[in-house]
What does this fold into?
Amino acid sequence: MNTPIKVAIFASGNGSNAENIAKYFENNESIIIDSFYTNKVDAYVIERAKNLGIHCLYYKNSDFREGNIVLGELEERGVDFIVLAGFLLKVPENIIQKYPNKILNIHPALLPKFGGKGMYGDRVHQAVKEAGEKESGITIHYVNECFDDGEVVFQAKCEVLINDSADDIAEKVHALEYKYFPEIIEKVVLGKI
It folds into this structure.
C-alpha cells in the first residue's frame, strides 16, 4: 500500500472549512489531514481540531512571517501539501519555494475581481454587493508570492440577486466552499487536475 499524502491546513478563524475538509478525508486511504496551523491564539479552529483529534499548532504572526519555524515543523511532520482555509497571512517565500504548486487557497469571490491584500471574508461580500455584481462565487488557486494571484484551478459561481445582503451572498458562497473545496483538493493532491 502506498504511503498516504499528508496535508496541513492553515486557518486563522472559525475553521468551518478546515473541519469540512477534515471530515471529507476521514476515511480516505490516499490523503490524510495531518495537522492544522493557526496564527490566532483564540481561533475556534483550535477547538475544532481538538474535537476532530487533529494535531493543531499555534504560531505567532512573526513566526509565520519569518517562516523557518513553521517550515521546520512542516518538514518534521512530513507534510506533503498545504491548504489555506481562511488563512489571512501571506505565506512566506521559503514555504512557497519548498512547496511549489503544493499550496492551495480558496477565495470567496471570482478572481481576479475582489482579490488582493485586505480582501477577505465579509469585506469581499460587501464589495461584491456595493459593486452591483450579478454573480459571485469561489476561486480555488495555487499560492504564490502575491495575494490571490496564483494560477486558478477551479471556479464555481452563484447568482447575486438585487435584494441580496452581504450576508446572503456569504451564505451562497459558503455553500459552494463546502461543496467543492474538499473535492478539488482531492483531485489536485492526487494529480487528477
The mean pLDDT is 94. The longest helix spans residues 166-189. The longest strand covers residues 31-38.
